[in-house]
Amino acid sequence: MTECTQCSFRFAALYRREVVAQFDGGDITTDAGGLLLREVDRRLSLTERLAACFTDYRRVDQIEHAVQGLVAQRLYGLALGYEDLNDHDQLRADPLMGVLIGKAEPQGTDRRRAQDQGKAGAGKSTLNRLELTPADADAKTRYKKIVYEGEAIDRLLVELFTEAHAEPPARIVLDLDVTDDPIHGNQEGRFFHGYYREYCYLPLYIICGEFVLCARLRSSNIDASAGALEEVQRIVAQIRAQWPQVEIILRGDGGFSRDALMSWCEDHQVDYVLGLAKNNRLRKIIGRQLQEAKLQFEGSQKAARVFSEFSYQTRKSWKRPRRVVAKAEHLQKGANPRFVVTSLSAERWEARSLYEELYCARGEMENRIKEQQLALFADRTSTELMRSNQLRLYFSTCAYQLMQGLRRLGLKGTEMAQAQCQTIRLRLLKIGAQIWVTVRRVYLSLAAGYPFRETFAHVCRNLMSTA
Question: Any idea where the domains of the chain sit in the sequence?
């Protein structure tokens, strides 16, 4: 029987004009703005350096996709909004993706197998093997032979941070926080978390400004601070090797006010300002201030705050007394006391400014975590093993750093200089274009109706002038 395929589609007429659609537009991409990410990558050498954190045991004569190309394909895919490996079965045929990952023939005309012709990028199976390679794989392993070194990727994240500064800063603040990463299968490390009321992972983040210095995937059956000391020790040592005189302040919520972490900071000239869980002893200490705040509220019907400070030591867990800053606050719903423990002296930071200006600024870190989870799919940890899910978290983190590089290097001086990743993607990366590939040129004809031409031109100037 004859198999018919419809190739022309007629829609309702526009007055006297017929409206006809056909799939004959040639090579067209919706992600032409990805070229900007490619320029950022050239500045940072991010995909090249990330690829160097992998050991490739494959036979050289059988390799069609180098590690750097595979890593780049994953990072660009995430940055452009493609969270699943399945997406790459279509993306691999986009000549723009071939350009982004550095293929000599971006239309895939040099592929060995007939079924791969026209597909420059790697398919989902190849990318899946990259993620699922076990730590002990070697040249004798049958299928999965590309092993990543987590310690090297950890060092790279800190290097990206220090290299972004032309001069060592006088002071940096390292923010610590955890978040929930819901899981919906029987992944390794699966546990139910009572606070979040779901099965999840509990990744630890350490962030400085807009830079993610640590993204550690962890099971959720642990204390929030588990492993934080080791991560802080590693990061501080690497930073001080570059900036010996920098002042470092550690900032986090009450989940990190643990004696081991604070004692190490005190012994290594690292200051801290950490939340402190309230209890009856602490409430009793600020009883007068709570009453004062209540009277102020009753007189004005507006939120009232009274700050105080005192020396405090837990009965069992702390080895020494420490400075605690208290906020006695009264709101419409009633008393709302908050406490912060710190190594910073009252001469340097008085109580109100320490709480309102220094401690409360940690809320900005949560925006960085949300960006990575919501826009760059850090929560797409659906493989069976913790190791492969950690690699997915690394990919998401590096894709975020690529987007952050575009914001920092390309968007400075524009109205989008503070835009979040999702906004940058929709306005700057999702551009329709037709692609022509010739012997001498790859030419993109961008959509004439693109509304952010001036911003695009500004970003190009910024990236080229600093190249």
Answer: 28-148+390-465, 151-375
CA distance 427 to 431: 8
Give phi and psi for 339, each to the nearest 5.
-135, 145
Q: What is the pLDDT of residues 149-177, one digit of tens each?
A: 999 999 999 999 999 999 999 999 999 99
What φ, ψ does residue 276 adopt, rounded to 5°?
-135, 125
- pTM higher than 0.85: yes
CATH architecture of the domain 151-375 equals: Alpha-Beta Complex (3.90)
Q: Tens digit of pLDDT for each residue in 9-60? A: 999 999 999 999 998 888 999 999 999 999 999 999 999 999 999 999 999 9
